[in-house]
Every structure is written in structure tokens, then in C-alpha cells.
Design brief:
- With about 140 residues, the chain is an alpha+beta fold.
- Helix content is about 40%, strand content about 20%.
- The chain has 3 helices and 5 strands; from the N terminus they run αααβββββ.
- Strands 1-2-3-4-5 form a 5-stranded antiparallel sheet, with helices on one face.
- About 25% of the residues are buried.
């Protein structure tokens, strides 16, 4: 049994090594998950900030400054602007909160650059996160 497992692992290892040069030859990898991860981290932080405000003041807020939310900028210190002052830019995403009722909200993150431009993530007061897929064929 042990000898069979070792032979199977050596075949898998050999195949992985054989495929690596092919994958690298196609060009630099596209890391859509890393880019999307930026928005997911920020949306979770925004959700936590809104929940904290609800505990403290018994309400949600559309004012991201009041909530204490300011997403990270790009490494060069820049951030995209939104269509109006209710949006706050991070690096590749812009963020907004809409209070939809006394105890409900929907926060939106919209990708504005790169391969994921057009992708939209939303999180509501229950913590449910949804994504509208990116239009690019590079990112599923």
C-alpha cells in the first residue's frame, strides 16, 4: 500500500513539473482573486464599522466618514474618485453605503480599473456578500 502511494505521488509530482513551464510560457498570471480579495476585505471592514455604529447609535449611516471607514489607497497613494461625493475610493474599487431602512443597509464596492473593472460586490446588514462577475474573460 505504501509503495503504491509513493509511486502515485511521484507521478503527480512529475506531471506538475511538466506543466509548470507551459503555464509560465503563456505570460504573467492573472490574479483576479487577489484583486477581488481587496474588495472583500474592505467590505468586511465596512460591515463591521456599520455594525459598531448600530450598537453605539442605534442606526446605520451612509456617511462613510461617520462610520470611520476609509479603504486603503494604492501603493503610490492614489485612489479613484466616484461618480459623486457619496463614494469613497480605495485602490481598484470605489465604495458606497445605502441605508435602505431603519435597520438595513447595502454596501457596494465597484471595481473601476484592471481586469475586474465592472465587477460589483455587495454586502447587507446580515453580512451576506454577493458578487456580480467581472465582464473580462480573464476572470471567471
Amino acid at each position: 500500500m505504501r509503495r503504491h502511494s509513493m509511486r502515485w505521488l511521484s507521478v503527480v509530482g512529475a506531471l506538475c513539473g511538466a506543466w509548470s513551464p507551459v503555464a509560465m510560457a503563456e505570460g504573467p498570471p492573472v490574479d483576479c482573486g487577489g484583486v477581488e480579495g481587496e474588495a472583500i476585505r474592505e467590505m468586511r471592514a465596512l460591515y463591521e464599522a456599520e455594525q459598531s455604529l448600530l450598537q453605539e447609535k442605534d442606526k446605520y449611516s451612509q456617511d462613510l466618514a461617520q462610520v470611520g471607514f476609509l479603504p486603503l489607497t494604492c501603493s503610490d497613494g492614489t485612489r479613484p474618485s466616484g461618480p459623486d461625493s457619496s463614494w469613497v475610493g480605495g485602490c481598484r474599487f470605489i465604495y458606497q453605503v445605502e441605508v435602505t431602512g431603519p435597520f438595513s443597509f447595502i454596501a457596494t464596492a465597484r471595481a473601476v480599473s484592471g481586469l475586474v473593472a465592472g465587477m460589483t460586490l455587495r454586502i447587507d446588514e446580515t453580512g451576506t456578500l454577493t458578487r456580480t462577475p467581472a465582464p473580462s474573460g480573464e476572470c471567471p
